[in-house]
Amino acid sequence: MLNKKLKLRKRFLRKRQLILDRINKEKKINENLINILSSTNLIISLYISVKSEVNLTETSKFMHKNKKKIALPIIENKDMHLLFKEWKDGEALQKGKYDIKIPINKNYLEPRVLVVPMVAFDIKKNRLGYGGGFYDKTISYLEKKNKILKFGIAFDEQESKSIPVNNFDKKMDVIFTQSRIII
After folding, report:
1. 145 near 164, Cβ under 8 Å?
2. What is d(CA 152, CA 117) in angstroms, rounded to the nearest whole number?
3. Long-range Cβ contacts of 15-23 (<8 Å, 24+ apart)
4. What is the distance between the alpha carbons of residues 138 and 20, in angstroms, rounded to a whole number?
5. Alpha carbon 158 to chain centroid distance?
6. Domain range spanning residue 100?
7. Structure pTM?
């Protein structure tokens, strides 16, 4: 199982780096995401893209402009679930673990909507990440406290016929790509 995931991860990370017409595809993904997020007042966890992930700058601009609460994930301990800090419009970010940009403030929040980057996905809404298990641990932790929504973000080109899953792997509730919203 681990070997299958490693091979898939390598293949789809390469595929994601080679996405053509990236700006237009990202624009469509952001539009799809904004249409859904515009109607909620829940705390939403976004991410600042790294490693050729879908760029969600347009979504974050919309969220800030409309006074929505945004939280960004932070890794404080590699054996623990993610924590989240509030990110306000214009607030400076610093580099955290794995060069992920994080807020400097001390305002921790618990999101009810997780917007999750993906390396690959399948039609059953299984997600392949980087292999650290951070989002799986975080989803397990947050689901014990509240009902949460899990939105996976990817390009169409990142779809796999199937993703091998373990007991601890968490499915997405919805997947957003440039051409589809998979529910």
Report:
1. no
2. 6
3. 15/157, 15/158, 16/52, 16/53, 16/119, 16/154, 16/155, 16/157, 16/158, 17/52, 19/52, 19/155, 19/157
4. 32
5. 14
6. 2-182
7. 0.93
Q: Which of 29, 22, 39 is nearest to 116 (CA)?
A: 29
E-strand spans in 111-170? Answer: 113-117, 120-121, 127-128, 149-153
Can you tell me the distance from the alpha carbon of 126 to that of 104, in angstroms, rounded to the nearest whole number?
33
CATH code for position 34: 3.40.50.10420
Counted domains in the chain: 1
Rg of the chain over Cα atoms, rounded to whole angstroms, equals 15
Q: How many residues does the chain have?
A: 183
Q: Dump the DSSP string for 101-119.
A: EEESS--B---SEEEEE-S
Tokens of 7: 């091979």
DSSP secondary structure code for residue 176 in this structure: E
Rounded mean pLDDT for each run of 10 residues along the chain, 183 residues in total: 86 96 98 94 95 96 95 92 94 89 94 97 96 93 95 98 92 97 94
